[in-house]
Design goal:
about 300 residues, alpha/beta, Metallo-beta-lactamase, Chain A, seven-stranded mixed sheet, five-stranded mixed sheet, globular
Length: about 300
């Protein structure tokens, strides 16, 4: 039965297992691709979540740090741009493909910054790093905030803004205001089906709301760094938000009619949207994602 295969709990376990497998595949010689977004801000891509760095006279501000084994390659990529010290690492949420390098960058002198719930999740779950070791205090955020916090460094204001519970209950987006660069964290998967972690307070409606906040902040020239996927612009962000709204409408309609999960998935309600969510694994990804959406909206009824 489809329903037994794609129940939300099983999906979360499978995704966590995939994350562990991906972490294990990352080597110290990880390939990091660097893209210049402004005079001071760059985007770094590897096997984990996308990274943004601001580099200037006040040092380096870094958004997310992927998996622990990639830390050396990431640090080398940053030094290749500029040798100034990494002063702050901002975690957009607690998942290990965005926080796995915390301990290593703390050892290099960086202070970890995140929302209150990120620190709480990491402590409460005894979060494991990519090498299987338990997190220690050096990997935890040392500065936390409840709503927003601003840094005034490298000639611009960097705003870290808590969004409604979306991918998790600790998501934040980061706006480099002078450079007009917006890091959306995992509330935005560019060209991919999103994932929201219900076990961490994630909510589908929150994903839509958080994307809406990103749209209000961004303008026609804003460069948008997604949590995963390639560099985007406001048009891509809006397209993704609009597709999620369509999925919500279709799922809510099925629930109102009493359509079972099996029948809902069998109808392939997003077949006309699949080209917007990547090629090669459309049906499997759609079924997993739609199962999560169905369960989340059903719970809210």
């Amino acid at each position: 039965m489809i329903q037994s295969i794609f129940r939300p709990g099983a999906i979360r376990i499978a995704l966590l297992a995939a994350l562990v497998s991906l972490a294990a595949s990352v080597s110290v010689n990880a390939q990091i691709k660097t893209t210049k977004l402004s005079d001071s801000v760059h985007m770094l891509r590897g096997k984990g979540g996308n990274i943004a760095v601001s580099i200037g006279g006040d040092g380096v501000i870094m958004v997310d740090d992927q998996f622990a084994p990639a830390s050396t390659a990431i640090a080398d990529a940053i030094r290749a741009i500029d040798g100034r010290p990494i002063r702050f690492v901002i975690n957009t949420h607690w998942h290990g493909d965005h926080t796995g390098g915390n301990k290593n960058f703390n050892a290099l002198g960086a202070t970890i910054v995140a929302h209150d719930n990120v620190r709480a999740e990491m402590i409460g779950r005894w979060f494991k790093d990519a090498n299987g070791g338990f997190v220690d205090s050096n990997a935890l955020p040392k500065i936390t905030f409840s709503d927003r916090i601003s840094f005034h460094l490298n000639g611009e204001t960097v705003e870290i803004i808590k969004v409604p519970a979306a991918h998790t209950d600790g998501d934040a987006i980061v706006h480099f205001t002078g450079s007009d660069v917006l890091h959306m964290g995992d509330v935005f998967f560019n060209g991919l089906y999103s994932y929201f972690d219900g076990s961490s307070g994630g909510r589908f409606d929150g994903m839509i709301d958080a994307l809406g906040i990103g749209l209000k902040i961004s303008g026609p020239k804003t460069k948008i760094v997604p949590g995963h996927g390639g560099l985007a612009d406001r048009g891509a962000l809006k397209r993704h938000r609009d597709r999620l709204m369509i999925i919500r409408e279709r799922t809510a309609e099925a629930l109102a009619k009493g359509v079972s999960l099996d029948d809902f998935l069998a109808s392939r309600p997003t077949r006309d949207l699949e080209d917007d969510f990547g090629a090669g694994y459309k049906v499997m990804a759609a079924e997993k994602f739609l199962s999560l959406v169905y369960a989340d909206l059903k719970k809210a009824e």
